[in-house]
Amino acid sequence: MMKSHATLQLKYIGINTSKSAIIYMREDCHICRSEGFVAETRVQVTINNRSIIATVNTTELASDLLKPHEASLSRHAWDLLAANVGDEISISHPAPLDSLSYIRSKLYGNELKTAEINQIIDDVVSGQLSDIHITMFLAASSGNRLNKKETQDLTQAMVQTGERLKWPSQCIVDKHCVGGLPGNRTTLIVVPIVTAFGLMMPKTSSRAITSPAGTADTMEVFAPVNLDVKAMQKVVSQENGCIVWGGAVSLSPADDLLIRVERSMDLDSEGQMVASILSKKIAAGATHIIIDMPIGPTAKVRSIAQADILKNYLESIAAQFSIKLRVVFTNGTQPVGRGIGPALEAKDVWAVLSCDPAAPQDLRDRALTLAGHILEFSPNVQPGCGKETAESLLNNGHALKKFQAICKAQGGLFDIPSAPYTKTIVAKVKGKVASIDNRLLARLAKLAGAPKSKSAGIELLTPLNKLVEKGEPLFIVHAETKGELSYALTFHQQRPNIIHIEEAI
Amino acid sequence: MMKSHATLQLKYIGINTSKSAIIYMREDCHICRSEGFVAETRVQVTINNRSIIATVNTTELASDLLKPHEASLSRHAWDLLAANVGDEISISHPAPLDSLSYIRSKLYGNELKTAEINQIIDDVVSGQLSDIHITMFLAASSGNRLNKKETQDLTQAMVQTGERLKWPSQCIVDKHCVGGLPGNRTTLIVVPIVTAFGLMMPKTSSRAITSPAGTADTMEVFAPVNLDVKAMQKVVSQENGCIVWGGAVSLSPADDLLIRVERSMDLDSEGQMVASILSKKIAAGATHIIIDMPIGPTAKVRSIAQADILKNYLESIAAQFSIKLRVVFTNGTQPVGRGIGPALEAKDVWAVLSCDPAAPQDLRDRALTLAGHILEFSPNVQPGCGKETAESLLNNGHALKKFQAICKAQGGLFDIPSAPYTKTIVAKVKGKVASIDNRLLARLAKLAGAPKSKSAGIELLTPLNKLVEKGEPLFIVHAETKGELSYALTFHQQRPNIIHIEEAI
């Protein structure tokens, strides 16, 4: 039978490899034998007229995972092909990829042409390029080897591969934080302030990737965030703004695929970072953008010099897309507010919005600064008067009312939950809080259950430079189960110096 | 129970991912949940006191592959850990790798220090670095970004990580072909000639990786090649030489791991190539090396200019290790001999060694040239007289006798098998053989079953520039099964121009 000679039947074995397309085949199946396919071969997999490139993993003779006529796919490959159990798939040698020669050319120091960058990004999104190829591209672009024209082309290519939102206003404001600072949850305060003023701010936010909470995770404490474009447009038409999860909308899907590999590489290239930030904002329809750039030794941007380069880069590429962009340098030496984790951050936000005198003043002040810069995009606000305007919108309760209205429009306005298990960590010596390791603090919050357990996380009681007595509370670990609490505490015992206290003499 | 809290029990599911260390864990197992491990997280896996770094693939709730307390490993990870079914493994966050910051530094254009290169290579061999990290390193080294000092350090580091053979002679000769030319099977002729002369040549060769036959595959037609160091030393002490598979001996294991990723990258960096070649030779104990460098449009080295750069690089690094090295440029425009595939190549070799007048003269001549250069390493052979000396050793039957003795010492001297199924491909027009696509020809031989089916492959009847009549045989496809033959022929129908004939007017 000629047909079965070239095909295998799909079985589901349910392995998730993140975004790697893997095909599982028996090492002794007729296709592996005749084509010489072994583990790691790149092959073209076709169902009807849908086709992807996947990497072969073989199953051994001794394994009963697959029968001789069967194959399986990783979750990602399964989804890309919209596969069904029992589908007949054919497997063949893939044609050589032009994009791979462009990437090699870039590695050899040549400038990439617009069409070449488009091809690379198309092949990333359609799964033609393996992780190894994507790594080659990111490595070739690192060390500032992407010039401004290439960065602009990359941004454009990334915008083109996804959806692009349209809004009924000429001025769509947005903000973005370069990241690396736990608890920096200003969006939930900024959006109600500027929409209360009358600007349109349809905000798409991310969930936590490596952190204990993303803006979308925190917003979800108050209201649903998994809105599709249509639902999102309805909220915005009613309230001028929203705070939803960007993942439900396919904005710059190439960015998600590149960031995934960059995370494994633990590498940020300036060109890549600029294209990543701007492609998402352009796809979201933004025309005026404020970039919050925290600077600090454990933040993503570690020096003013590095911040200046990135600022210049962002401004000049944004200008190419006729976008008004302003970068605001902020303090990145310590977490913002008191809470780290969705519900604990939500409490901080609520305290600021309701003008609770006990609200964390650093979060309030930072949100007002950013909101002020956004308000100054409006012709009705004088330069230098934005923060003042923002403050009055907060103090007169308009921002709180707007936030409640947005939550309701998104289908919520829930109460903030509290964790049933807590443990207070106290100072072992008397002295001054000399440093706070943001990364370890974030890890501790995650071990306690954040962001999946909404009320889990860390409540930080001692900012930098505070003088503490021996035995004075430093922070409280919150957890939803006893196991998670003890898990986090065990980790803390091994690293007791997350908050370093300089002993008083 | 505190113990089970941090451990899972090993189940064998038999997935081969080549050299990637993968751990399969249920997405809902207690460790994934509490540590936040998801598909693609890098984790440290420990059994007793053995530890590796592996990448997580998760199994979904709906999958019955693993029970909640179970985990599995890819074949490579299983072997690295010497794991057994039922072993208790513990999984934790890996410590940050210094080598990763060295690689990032190299990406940013900094020179790597000796200790840094050592650390990178150590981490490659012990499986600490993922494919993405290895790709970063190779990309950072490409485009000639490794200087000579770094190449020397890399070579040294690669030698250090494996075995290093010792021989009872001050002069150990070796040869290496830079590759890309099917049928270039001179080793099986060169070794008997130079060992018959009295030089010591303990040759380790590779099996086919992407080609239809490696030297070890062809030698295996005559005699066993899977000899360990002890057996190899016995053969050499008796016959002055051997031709064995290098994979049975762990020479420069880092090279195998790097080459695997380079193949996926489809990239050769000069520094990497030089370190790869020399580290294997130094580890094999060579003191005098001839490099056969075929130059041609479908060979690895495509121009004299490229060959000159590589030659200079090889010579200067070899000198740093006090190795005498000579590069011989050879014709790389077409396959050597008539056979492509283990048994067909073995027939060519046997015809040359037994001075059959019908033997392929190009193979004979090339082997004599290379053997001549090696013989000139001896103080007893005048410069320029090597080839002549080699020829007399071939013509007087000493080389053949030596080859038979080596085969017997290795445990063989088998008859060469013939394939039961053949198909002759004829010229469709009258004209001159204008070009031969080496890569497509190699692919055709592989589709016919080579190298796994020893007697499968291609018998090439028409060298470049030969005038052929319409209907005259161009080449014969050999296969061990009807299915494989028809498979190869189907491929040929789709690409009828593997041998391009310029029509006579």
What is the CATH class designation of the largest domain in chain A?
Answer: Alpha Beta
Overall shape of chain A: globular
Tell me which oligomeric state these chains represent. homodimer
- Largest interface, with Cβ-Cβ < 8 Å? A-B, 57 and 55 residues
Radius of gyration of chain A: 25 Å
Helix and strand composition category of chain A: alpha/beta
Strand segment tally of chain A: 19
Average pLDDT level of chain A: 90
Number of domains of chain A: 4
Strand content of chain A: 15-25%
- CATH architecture title of the largest domain in chain A: 3-Layer(aba) Sandwich
| Strands ordered across the widest β-sheet of chain A | 1-6-3-5-4-7
Strand count, sense and barrel status of the largest sheet of chain A are: 6 strands, mixed, barrel
Extract low-pLDDT stretches of chain A. Answer: none
